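ARCHIVE CARD
Drawer: 12
Card no.: 0347
Subject: one protein chain, sequence and derived structure
Cross-reference: see card 0346
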Amino acid sequence: MNISILGSGRVGTTLAQALAAKGHDVTLGHRDPAIGKNQWQGPPLRHASLADAAAASPLVINATPGDTALQMLQALQAPLQGKVLLDVSNATERTANGMPSGLLYPNSSLAERLQAALPQTRVVKSLNTMLFTVMAAPQSLPTPPTVFISGDDTGAKDQVKALLAELGWLAGQMLDLGGIQSARATEALILMAPYLIAARGLKPFALTVA
């Protein structure tokens, strides 16, 4: 698969390493590609600016911080036109220690805002209800996790499901919740994260349906 990932933080690099290790053609978008390339320690892949990465692949993953993602991706409307955009971020207000404290779009969702701002891009929401380590290693948990999928375009969701399968997600673990509006429910689940971490420590977790 030909995949671009926007954002080289923990989420972006985890996904990039996993997909590149499987032989996929990965372009990792950085704010400063030169610094990103020099710091990269994973399998071979291409390093590019955010705009060049957005233009490089038919499937683009948004792994940038959710509180600035809308503004950043609006500036990439042209290179994202006609693409599938998998949004894995959560737009939240943050406390001093970086934990989410409230939703930036409480009567909507980041995914819905992105779809409205990028009408020629097919937005799909997924992978946003777990610690980043689980995104690329779902079988690492003793209880099978669920990965939720939201989006208005069936073909785009099928492409995302194929990508999830490459990351190790089984078909029975994928739950299609319907249109992009359903993303407001999964984005709200991130508010459980600080309480889970306080109760159990910073351990890999994912929310699931049983």
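Annotation on reverse: Residues 150 and 177 are 6 Å apart (CA to CA). The chain has a mean pLDDT of 96.
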